[in-house]
Write a structure and sequence with these properties.
The strands form two sheets. Strands 5-1-8-7-6 form a five-stranded antiparallel β-sheet, sandwiched between helices. The protein is globular. By secondary structure, the protein is of the alpha+beta class. 47% of the residues lie in helices and 23% in strands. α1 packs antiparallel against α8 and α3 packs across α4. A hairpin with a 4-residue loop joins β3 and β4.
């Protein structure tokens, strides 16, 4: 009964976020992108690998939200379980409370650098841990008006439009595009080459965050041509981000 209650609440929240994305795209005729709360707020609490046999184990992932996931993984051939346990202990020590959004990048920088210092052949266990932490981020990112780019005169070039549509279909690239806009409150504007991904260097990205008790939960944004009506879009994002903050505060409390 309790599980069903929270599932219904989560569905209700997702409907609200999708509605915000739809309203934004309809009012601006541009593409709207909304990052749901789980993308920014979910962090790793603990990871455990439980061996089933010499080549198979179960990975148990616990997040700060209390979510528990179980995944069956294949232990790399020739790597003893004792080595896997060392890797997992290091990961728990270094990456606890790291947002899952940034987990993989830190895995291949901080953890990989440390492992390379005291052991060889760490690449396969590292890849195994990378696969363990695959998460369905697509479910936490909401898009609307993805084909609105086709109606803009700046984007009659088929190759240019294709690169933008490809970007919008790839969640990791979308997260990278919004990276840097998720840690600051207020409305932010990136014009043309200020964007981090070349595919949208002819676009402008305007974003705003929503929060609960000062804790940032997510980001709403508009992607459109550089000639967009900035005053109108900034006003809409500011207004809708505040409305979404109020909705989230009621939902969380």
């Amino acid at each position: 009964m309790l599980r069903q209650f929270f599932a219904e609440k989560m569905q209700e929240m997702e409907r609200v976020i999708q509605q915000v994305a739809t309203v934004l795209s309809q009012l601006t005729n541009y593409t709207s992108i909304v990052l749901g709360p789980e993308v920014l707020g979910t962090t790793l609490k603990h990871l455990q690998i439980v061996p089933l046999n010499e080549r198979t184990a179960v990975a148990i992932i616990v997040t700060n939200t209390g979510q528990v996931e179980n995944k069956t993984v294949t232990i790399p051939e020739g790597v003893p379980m004792s080595e896997i346990e060392k890797f997992v202990n290091l990961l728990n020590a270094r990456l606890k409370n790291v947002p899952l959004l940034h987990f993989k990048s830190k895995l291949y920088t901080e953890i990989a650098a440390e492992l390379s210092g005291y052991t060889s052949g760490y690449e396969e266990p590292l890849m195994m841990l990378n696969n363990v932490m695959d998460h369905p981020e697509e479910e936490r990112i909401f898009l609307s008006g993805t084909t609105n780019m086709l109606t803009q005169p700046e984007f009659k070039d088929v190759d240019k439009v294709k690169s933008i549509l490809d970007l919008l279909s790839e969640t990791p690239k979308l997260i990278k595009l919004l990276d840097g806009t998720t840690g600051t409150s207020g409305v932010q504007v990136r014009i043309g080459g200020e964007n981090t991904i070349e595919a949208v260097n002819d676009c402008s990205l305007i974003t705003a965050t929503y929060s609960v008790d000062g804790k940032l939960l997510g980001t709403i944004g508009i992607l459109g041509p550089t000639r967009m009506d900035y005053g109108k879009v900034v006003h809409l994002l500011d207004h809708l981000s505040k409305d979404l903050t109020q909705v989230m505060e009621r939902w969380y409390k």
